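I am writing to request your help with a piece of structural work I have in hand. The matter concerns a single protein, recorded as an amino acid sequence and a row of backbone structure tokens. Could you please explain, in whatever detail you think fit, how the structure tokens follow from the sequence? Thank you for your consideration; the sequence and its tokens are set out here:
>
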Amino acid sequence: MKKLFLFIFALAAYATGFAQKESYFVNPVIRGDVPDPSIIRFGDTYYAVGTSSEWAPHYPIFSSTDLVNWQPAGHVFPKLPDWTVSSFWAPEWFVHQGKIYVYYTARKKADGISCIGVAVADSPTGKFKDYGPVVEFGREAIDAFILEDGGKLYISWKAYGLDNRPIELLACQLSDDGLRTVGEPFSLLRDDERIGMEGQQWFKHGDYYYLIYSTGGCCGPRSDYAVSVARAKNLRGPYEKYDGNPILHGSRDVLSIGHGTITTAPDGRFFYLCHAYLPGQGFFQGRQPFLQEIRMGEDEWPYFLTGEYANRVQPAPLNGCVQEPTADFADNFTADRLAPEWSWNYTFADVQVSLRDGKLHLAGTPKDGTTTGAALCLRPTSANYALETAVVNHNSAWKGIVLYGDAQNLITLGACGDSLQLKYVIRGKEHLLSHSLPSVPLHLRMYVSRGTDISFAYSTDGTTWERLSAPALSDEELRSLVQWDRVSRPGLYQEGEPDEEAVFEYVRLRNIQ
């Protein structure tokens, strides 16, 4: 009854305008696609890191002093660790002996099997030294989590996800330096119901060890992620699943929710940072980080403060916390390095980016015989936005803006030789419309509404704009821009010889309400 009351109160407060900034915040706390977030408190600052999948740089990092307002703070890896090839999922922070460890999932270059690696730095934004795989198990080992108990370290992970048998959460002791396993793996929990099991948080509280884990499907418009819990009196189990599972699941305002970790406020309260989709057009912002307070009940089972139905409106975690509005993005390329908001398609092209004389120079070399270009992109923080840039050089390469799913699914407007061209690539099939090329500099603008509805315009002075007609795409064709585990991103695009780079003067990404 207490949980139901709090949930109804929060909804009523939001509906009547009582949810003032100084008392409440609205999820997501980090806008844009940052799945599988892990969170730590290091000194007076909180740090979050999330899945980067097939985008580079690998594992974006964010920082916050109040758990609600977050800023980009870099990446764990600026380039691929030597042993890896792709699929950078589920990084997990851990603080040990004053050092920052990140345990992460990636596919091995040698055989394509996903396993768990580890890297170490002096701080969450420091330079990480990679120590390679620490867990290699069967056909797949993913979703690491670390528990320190009695002075010993243990690592848990999801196993058997690719086998025709129930998934299990396995664990193994680690060496004192956290860099290798010791002894044999043991089972913590088994998915006998065959409903899915992954993304576990493992901790001890009072007399029990707890596993908070995710069930259901993680990704896509039909995902049904939910959060469940099990407990045991002993670290190795047996673990008892809670009869009231799931303790957190989707609602009218949240498509699905799960895969997170817990941090503590200075007063000891627990906060769970996980990911969720927004329904409808909000889906095209991807899996975004949600913050929910979690408490222990009198029955020694955890519960979420605002109830089992995921609620976007939450009480502010710290006194005086005021949530800031989502900011637009602008880059005039005057810095000495690329801003951390940028990402690129490392699986399809070796992307070369440089900043010189207040301009961004972009080129790329396709991989594996493909004809794809180099896409330098931004995470959309709204389903409705406008992206604008100016191309300031002339050559035979493609130079323009793009909405990028992957090499086989993209929409781009660009200057190519003596023509302005609009190109759709849908499931690898190319459609091209040409127009006469205005003079350089050429200003280009892309309008995106509801996540994938696209229109274009161009200008020779950045003030007067000419709209371009474009063929309408079906809902099915538009959906091809969205991959199973990630959404499309807007950005800059070059296609052509590596020495025929595209040069851009600025970029502006403006959210439209």
User: Anything to note?
Assistant: The radius of gyration is 23 Å. The first strand starts at residue 24 and ends at 26. The longest helix spans residues 2-15.
